[in-house]
Design goal:
402 residues, elongated, Receptor-associated Protein, 4-stranded antiparallel beta sheet, single chain, 75% helix, 4 strands
């Protein structure tokens, strides 16, 4: 077998390098993942290649959901695994996804399990997917697991779409308002300024403020662009560091209206993910680790890892969940009931259903509240600029009429 050199990082973030023998790059990736090493680069002596980068926007979540649904139907119909992958790959319009599925099929033909073959493509098939597939293969219920994965991804897409649609309107209106105000200050106000200078009239305070803002925008317009770019880059840099990401997510959860919505989204995602994993036969400790890594919120991730450690020490899941202060009392109480009755997976799914409905209602309420506020603020700002520009003219007309 060929010899590969690799570099990557372990769970603690430490850089790991070394040499291994493997039949191909996918199998080496699987071996490294078993050792909790995330490979960054792999090179065969005399040959260089990159790990698969399919996904990251190249493979859409909806396409993955459809793939799981079709895959489950084929497996349930009794088609061989390799043939299913071959058919699904051939019918993919997305070339990146087609190459991924072809690579998975090739690895499976080489003797690997489906879960291990998928682990070679971590940007398309995450830990949740591969662990559920592994549980399905072990228990002989792969078709059922694929159905659950399809349902899980579909609900995740629905949840994400609801949040996006709720945020598009206010962001679009605020952006449009900023452009309108900027255009007024940049091009309209200077016309009135020249008029007032020619007339030599005394200007009231509001008019002088608007003219001063216009002069600032006309001279330092680049400052606003630089500020927006700096804000975006700054947020990205902060979120690259564990502590910065934690405090940033913590601050978001403390926001008056948006924080409540984000907390509900986090609870819905946590309960749906953990419930799906436990239902599929994944051990709770492994399920908590996967849920923490896929939570998308550093505060929730840290809380779940503390819960996992407490369970390892022999405690029940309810007390550490309650002590974290992240989860509402209703959630911890229902999980406690589910744990006591041995139906925690079903209880988690019910909580997820409830909170997904809550997210829908919260987004609608936020829209209903923000719409009049945004329109009112826009009217006040634009109207204030227009009135301040006409105030000297009104004063002149009054003097002439008198």
């Amino acid at each position: 077998m060929p010899v590969f050199t690799f570099s990557g990082k372990n769970e603690a973030g430490q850089k790991i390098t070394g040499e291994r023998t493997a039949s191909n790059k996918q199998m080496l990736t699987v071996q490294l993942r078993r050792e909790q090493i995330t490979a960054g680069s792999i090179r065969e002596k005399g040959k260089e290649f990159a790990l698969p980068t399919f996904g990251s926007g190249k493979v859409k979540v909806k396409e993955i959901a459809i793939f799981f649904r079709q895959f489950s139907v084929m497996i349930d119909a009794g088609l061989p695994l390799v043939q299913c992958l071959e058919i699904l790959a051939a019918n993919q319009e997305n070339m990146a996804f087609q190459k991924t599925l072809t690579g998975v099929r090739t690895t499976v033909e080489g003797g690997a399990t489906l879960a291990n073959a998928m682990r070679g493509y971590p940007k398309v098939f995450d830990d949740l997917t591969t662990n559920m597939i592994e549980a399905g293969e072990t228990g002989g219920i792969l078709d059922l697991i694929l159905q659950r994965l399809a349902l899980y991804v579909e609900k995740a897409v629905k949840l994400k779409s609801a949040v996006k649609s709720a945020l598009i309107y206010p962001v679009a209106v605020v952006s449009l308002a900023g452009l309108i105000v900027g255009a007024l200050l940049k091009w309209v106000v200077p016309i009135f300024t020249n008029l007032f200078v020619g007339l030599g009239v005394a200007l009231p305070l509001p008019t002088r403020i608007v003219i001063g803002l216009s002069a600032f925008v006309g001279t330092f317009w680049w400052f606003f662009i630089l500020g927006i770019v700096g804000l975006v880059v700054g947020v990205k840099q902060i979120r690259k560091h564990p502590k910065g990401r934690y405090y940033f997510d913590f601050a978001l959860l403390k926001l008056p209206v948006l924080g409540i919505l984000l907390r509900k989204i986090a609870v819905a995602r946590f309960t749906r993910t953990l419930g799906t994993l436990i239902t599929s036969g994944v051990p709770i400790l492994e399920g908590l680790s996967i849920t923490a890594r896929t939570s998308g919120n550093a505060v929730l991730e840290e809380a779940l890892m503390r819960v996992r450690k407490a369970i390892e020490e022999g405690r029940t899941i309810v007390d550490p969940l309650r002590e974290s202060g992240v989860f509402p009392n209703m959630v911890t109480q229902m999980i406690g009931v589910g744990e006591a009755t041995g139906a925690m997976d079903a209880m988690l799914q019910k909580i997820a259903d409830f909170y997904e409905d809550e997210v829908d209602n919260a987004t609608k309420d936020m829209m209903a509240m923000l719409e009049p506020i945004i329109i009112g603020v826009l009217g006040i700002v634009v109207g204030g600029i227009v009135i301040s520009l006409y105030m000297p003219l009104f004063a002149m007309i009054g003097k002439l009429a008198g």
